């Protein structure tokens, strides 16, 4: 099953999160694309994700997941004890998402914005979906 993480390419915390996932996803389960990229925007339309989304988005098969559910499903696929984080899914989603939304709302203020996108290593490049210019 294809698993794609759409992330905010301008957010320092989001960039650090992608690096965190890459390090702990040794089976290369996930691929990545920036929400701001053409391919990211195309995937949002294809999966009919709400246009006003301010969240990490996980695309799995034919479904999408947002906010805390996306983060927890990602954690459940990572190496090590991070899999145990998936158990937090038992907390009611409105509570989980309220905490997630508070954090997301303040992420630029707390961690800042990037002036340029990260440059993946040679090994990581194949995991990033990029816009193809014909």
UniProtKB/TrEMBL annotation:
Protein name according to UniProt: Thiol-disulfide oxidoreductase DCC family protein
Organism this protein belongs to: Solibacillus palustris
